[in-house]
Amino acid sequence: MPFYILTIIGLLAGLFIISLGGGGGAVYVGVLTGLCDIPPDIAASTSLATVIPTAMMGAFSHYRAGNVHRHLALYLLAGCIPGAIVGSFFSTLLPLWIYNKMTGIILLVLALQMAWTCIRPPKHEVHNESDLTKKDKLKAGGFGIIGGLLCGLVGLSGGGPITAGLFILGCTPLAAVGTSVFVICVMSIVGFLMHLSVGRVDWELVKYLLSGTLIGAFLGPWLMSKLDRNKVNRVLRPIVAVVNLTMSIMVLMK
């Protein structure tokens, strides 16, 4: 596979996935294992090494645009960090196909919940910490644990369950996307450090992926900031739901 293809894949991943609240981990792992024939342990570490600077760029752009719900991000991270650590310890114990099925089922359930929020939006929207009930905070921690486990187990960025959780909790679409990328930034660092103990990083592949991904991660939030926020919020919810549903089906079919 020509390496310049990885640059193009990285550009598209950074442009579209960061704009939809993900980190691109699922795409990177799929490309590295399916197209480049990279062993799963190396693919996981290489994916997370690529996600970190990508998410940092996206998080900075979303933060400047006012799309990050900081208090909610802390509750998510309270679940994400231990989830990523535990997931990393168990990442070599089961066959990859079992992890794929588990991941696909989780993403499918969350995607269906997101689709339901498109039909019946949450009764209240979350704008600041005072809008969060104790139940909301516990739910946020639970969604964080799911995202962290996926990050630690198979090297995914965890953006699917995090974004889905934020939608379900009542965040506006732009806030859900921005907060998700912010959380992914921190979670990927933890997952990467843990994965270094079970797999090495192919820095050559990271270089090619990042050469396109960083450009896309900068352009995605910038382009969104130029659009009407109300129109983006109306369109973004169903788009993210469809993307997550498609991703879950693709993972289940592996």
Describe this structure in words.
The structure is a single chain. With 254 residues, the chain is mainly alpha-helical. It has one domain (3-252). Helices cover 78% and strands 0% of the residues. The chain has 10 helices and no strands. It has helices at residues 3-17, 25-35, 40-64, 70-90, 96-119, 134-154, 159-169, 173-195, 203-225, 229-252. Helix 7 packs across helix 10. The longest helix is centred in the N-terminal third of the chain and has 25 residues, at 40-64. It is globular and about 45 Å long. The model has no long low-confidence stretch (mean pLDDT 77).
Using only C-alpha atoms, the radius of gyration works out to 17 Å
User: Averaging pLDDT over every residue, what do you get?
Assistant: 77
Helix-residue proportion: over 70%
> Major sheet, described briefly?
none
Q: Indicate the proportion of strand residues.
A: under 5%
Shape: globular
Instruction: Give the ordered list of helices and strands.
Output: HHHHHHHHHH
Q: In whole angstroms, how far apart are the ends?
A: 20 Å
Count of discrete domains: 1
Annotation field: number of helices: 10
Low-confidence stretches: none
Structural class given helices, strands, pairing? mainly alpha
Strand tally is 0
